[in-house]
Amino acid sequence: MQDAKAKIDKIIQEANDFKLGDYLGRGFELFQKDMGGFVVFALIFFIVSMVIGVIPFVGSIANTFFIGPALTAGIYLVARQLDRGEPTEFGQYFKGFDFIGQLALAAFVITVFTLLVMVPFIITVWDPAWLEWYQEYLQNPTEPRLELLNFPPFWAYLLLLPVLYLTISYSFTYHFIIFHRLDFWSAMEASRRLLTKHFFMFFVFGLVLGLIIIISVFIFCIGLLAGFPIVYCALYAAFADLTKLNAAPEAMEGEGIERHLVD
Predict the structure, then answer these.
(1) Where do the domains of the chain lie?
(2) How confident is the model over 210-234, as pLDDT tens digits?
(3) Range list of H helices, 54-99
């Protein structure tokens, strides 16, 4: 397993430069290669999430830790097939469920870490007036009393910087799980180490991807059905380039790398 760890270390150390524009363009190209499949799958993704989401308590847990991660991984898997010029079948969009155990563990641990680092912010900004405002809103949704709100000072939002760091650092966790067969903790560490090297550029990349989603929302549902998979294809393109994914020996994918990475 030391050899497997060395290969992952080498991937991180020799990562390519971050090419933001190339990743956006490549993401759109991959989307065009199976536009119909991506749009239909995005529709299924949204419908399944909404249906499961209406189940009290259990629904949100299922979406956050099981359904969402597995379906997202499916997009990455199809994107790679397209990237390599290989034929795809619609059923491949659901291959992410083959990794559901490690994906669910990763989603759970990342969520716990994120909630923990949010505690200082929540303690700082908590104000009973927010509860009063919410009660007023429930009673009269069309005219909420904004004067009840007491917004926190600007400096308080600096406490959210650790949340930003975790969000960016763990963005490639699923990729390392499905493409390199890492266990959830090793994948989180590999993602953190890689993206810490490209933190600022990935932050800008994330802003652009967020803008694409916002714009697609305003183009009604059809726009979102396209914008959603384009964003994930762009994320795949970034991972594939930074890690030289398709240039790596095929044997690397099947080795079952399962040891924790250490700095």
Answers:
(1) 2-254
(2) 999 998 888 766 678 999 999 999 9
(3) 58-62, 68-83
